[in-house]
């Protein structure tokens, strides 16, 4: 266990926790890295976005399932993931949770071509689970869930 002191009200590295959220919309994917104190006052903690990366190219609904057949899309995704993961202290990477939420573009693709959308999500799950973080899920979220997350975010920021 690391022993550290509090300096000027800041928590030491050992007390920080991290999480990654990938917002995969209809036209693009954005990767966000969040940080929060491990020790919380009154069972609450302030979550701070410390880094984000926009994946170059179209949304995941335009990706090909096979990374070899769509090297540019997969490489762009990998560039962002490497950038985000490299911002996390190595000692904290395997405890960093990772979630991908696919929104409108994948909901539409799922209605038009369920097999292709399932294949894309499965391929992303395979890739994300190979990273040195704690991959939790990749799923197509409902419009209601997307709205709720937006509502929570807006209210938090206010």
UniProtKB/TrEMBL annotation:
Name the active site residues. 146
- Keyword Hydrolase carried by entry: yes
- Please give the start and end residues of each transmembrane region: none
Residues folding into a coiled coil are none
Keyword Calcium assigned: no
The record's section on InterPro entries has:
GDA1_CD39_NTPase
Q: Which GO terms describe its cellular component?
A: plasma membrane
**Which family is it part of?**
Belongs to the GDA1/CD39 NTPase family.
> Would you tell me the protein name for this molecule?
Ectonucleoside triphosphate diphosphohydrolase 1
Q: Which organism is it from?
A: Sparus aurata (Gilthead sea bream)
